[in-house]
Amino acid sequence: MICIAFLAIISNNAKAGQELDQAIIGLTDSFGTIECDSVLRGLGTKILLSPIELEKGSIFVTAAHTLFDKENSKRYKDCFFRVGNSRFNKRPFDRTSDTNYSPRDTDINKAVNDYIFFYIKNGTSQLGIRLKEAGKSEVNLVSIGFDSLSEKIILNNPCERIRSDILNHDGILLHNCDSKAGNSGGAIIDRNTGNLVAIHGGKFLINENKEDKNFSTKTTTINHGREVDFAFVQSLDNFILSLIPDR
Q1: d(CA 41, CA 35)
Q2: Is position 88 within any domain?
Q3: Rounded to an integer, what distance in angstroms lies between the CA atom of residue 22 and that of residue 48?
Q4: Is the pTM above the cut of 0.85?
Q5: Are 154 and 146 in contact (CB under 8 A)?
Q6: In terms of domains, do 115 and 171 share one?
Q7: Is the pLDDT at 17 greater than 60, yes or no?
Q8: Residue 217 is part of which domain span?
């Protein structure tokens, strides 16, 4: 695991001396944990927007499933964003975007719809992370994670997009980035640009039909995330427009 401070270098925000310190502080506070009904559910990322797009407050993105109780498929009642996972700097969600996510849907549909934006009026002052449509090109990636032992947000080891003939669906980015409990909704970042290209969702379990010599079925695990594409960006634009009366 790499200290999240190095994200400043990866995203070309690294500067010497005090400027580097300021860049690090700005980036680390762009990430935080999602607390719903007094339990940590996942991670959130602040999106970089211009003052023209959003005059006040901040918009964040996370995996939609972090806001749902998988036992009864209902939304959690009270959700907060912990800036940098600080218990003393948590802010309530003021609005959330519409979502097509349903815990009762198929695994593929859940993965495609597993993103949601939320708005906080008392937003953070840091700039946030810029979105970039991933497209179909190879991307040199790194993911944001949460270390439950140290209770810190971390930058995981470098990783990459992977391909599968079985799982080839628009909106889903398959990857081999670190995936642990509490990492849902974590940013997946292009190491070449520092832009957000996807958010981590979970794992697909694929049971192969062919049996080996011991007559056992082989199960393959593939990590997936919701990639930034046209539908993702359009959903964000619609959410921004819905906030105009609240400004």
Answers
A1: 6
A2: yes
A3: 17
A4: no
A5: yes
A6: no
A7: no
A8: 140-227
**In the block, residue with structure tokens 């081999």:** 176
| Predicted pLDDT at 92 | 95
Residue 83 within a domain: yes
Q: Please write the tens of the pLDDT for every residue from 175-201.
A: 999 888 789 999 999 888 888 999 999
Interatomic CA distance for residues 159 and 196, integer angstroms: 14
pLDDT digits (tens, 9 = 90+) for 124-169: 777 899 998 876 666 789 899 998 888 888 888 889 998 887 788 8
Diameter over CA atoms, the chain: 65
Among 17-26, 63-72, 162-171, 216-225, which is the least confidently predicted range? 17-26
